[in-house]
Write a structure and sequence with these properties.
Blueprint lengths: L8 H4 L16 H9 L3 H7 L4 H9 L8 H11 L3 H9 L15 H22 L8 H28 L8
Helix pairs in contact: 2-6, 3-4, 7-8
Length: 172
């Protein structure tokens, strides 16, 4: 026998603290795609070697046309804008942040990269306001870069750990 506890949002979050995005929030990613393409459907369709008419039908949901995952991937790569993926992630209570990809061969190397990146971020944040005169654009950019480096290192470390987990018999 199990039990569950329900805590109302007014009690669960501090004053002025917004509750996180809730999984299950209905989001039509095509609305985001349509907004992204507003006024440039033809130009984008031509650049991707797609039919403008078909693209218009796919993003409007007309006539059984489907705007698929590969379509979304190609579109985002072409435009350099991941707004639809960010909207999907947000609806599921996640975030998308840029990271600098890192490949690590072992858990010890991965941990070393995480710690190095954390140290770099701490140093950048400390130096950004060490003189007490505010944070310059260059200092802010360095902090953002170091944060992306840290997230990339943490991601690579986690991937390395997952790769090294023992596979169950039968490979599944």
């Amino acid at each position: 026998m199990g039990f569950s506890v329900s805590v109302p949002p007014a009690v669960a979050y501090g004053e002025g603290e917004a509750p996180p995005a809730t999984p299950g929030h209905r989001l039509d990613v095509l609305v985001v795609v349509r907004n992204l393409l507003k006024g440039r459907v033809g130009k984008v369709a031509r650049a991707l070697n797609w039919s403008e008419s078909t693209l218009q039908k796919k993003i409007s949901g007309e006539g059984g046309y489907v705007f698929g995952v590969r379509d979304l991937q190609e579109l985002q790569q072409h435009l350099g804008d991941i707004a639809p993926t960010q909207a999907l992630a947000s609806a599921m209570g996640h975030v998308c942040v840029p990271v600098h990809p890192v490949e690590v061969a072992s858990l010890s190397e991965g941990m070393a990269r995480v710690l190095q990146a954390l140290g770099d971020l701490a140093a950048a944040a400390h130096e950004a306001n060490a003189d007490g005169r505010g944070v310059s654009t260059n200092a802010r950019n360095r902090v953002e870069f170091c944060r992306s480096e840290l997230l990339g290192a943490v991601n690579a470390y986690g991937d390395c750990a997952v790769r090294q987990m023992a596979q169950p018999p039968g490979g599944g």
